[in-house]
Amino acid sequence: MEDLNSAIGLITKGLVVDDRMSGGIYSRLGEQEPHIENARAHMGKGDYSGVIGELRKAVTRTPNDPEVYYDLGVALFREGKLDDAIESFISAIKLDPFFAEAHFNLGVVFSKKGMTDDAIREYNRAVRLRPDYVKAHYNLALVLTNKGLIDHAKSELSVVGDIRHKQALEHYNKGVELACKGTVVIAMAEFREALRLEPSLYQAHNNIGALLAHNGMLDRAVAEYEQGLKINPEDPDLHYNMALAHSARENHNAALKELGEAIRLNPRFAEAHYSLGKTLAVLDKMDWAISEYKEALSVDPDMIMAYFDLGVALEAAGDLKGAIKAYRFFIQRSQAGNDVLRDFVDMRLAELEKKLEQA
After folding, report:
1. Domains in the chain, ordered, with CATH?
2. How far is residue 140's CA from residue 163's CA, in Å, rounded to a whole number?
């Protein structure tokens, strides 16, 4: 999050309201169902007056349901009937003292009425009941700021930052897990939620870009990588993945630039050296390509395909002995499943060895 002094300035823009209707409007069934259905219909039209009328009827039928009082309080608040809203939230709390959302919204109404000490009391109760209640910490910071208690407000904002960071990482890690399972759409949604909670999480932009690129949406992938690089231009993975997207779009000069940045930031980035070699080979710059393949293999001697591509480049450059050596390394290290490529390399070896004998 931003530094706390900046954040203090930002939060004075206004209170956050938890206007989620609880079970009453959206899911509660039973003997009051006709009123709930009617309230739902009014809610869909933004008719809070109609909602209030139906919920008042529901309350008379089920006077011991704290959630119906809570929903009524939200509707009353939206209609500007603050004193009535206070009464409904207090009724909800009397029936369920552990109803964190009711304490929170009671605090909102008190804040609106300028009853700062009462608001602080209710926000504190809300965060004691739900320590991860971001909205309550946020509003508590606001009223503390307005009361001149800046250090206490900073403390609350610090808690908000910690909670949002933790939640962002939970969504990010869930996205990674889902991406590994191939559940792309839901994984991307998790990464987006992580970014909503923590916009500086550039790794989420990187992963979204990788998923988009894997599914052929290269323009969108590039745009996502650009967003990540705005946050952290010194991340070699973002530059590398950007380069792969450019290569797939056959924008090889742009790929060269990004690969150069990736290697500048991480000189031992084997995959970047290898990809740079492949891009240089496409541009028929074989001597440079050979150098990059060798650099990749010096970092990671188990990079099997680098031996193959090195052999191809050396053969194209006329270094038959070097090509034979690279192809033999490929044969020695390649695993089952590369049979077609192994057969091709065996044929190339036979032809190259024959040429050397005839030379």
Report:
1. 4-159 (1.25.40.10), 285-359 (1.25.40.10)
2. 15
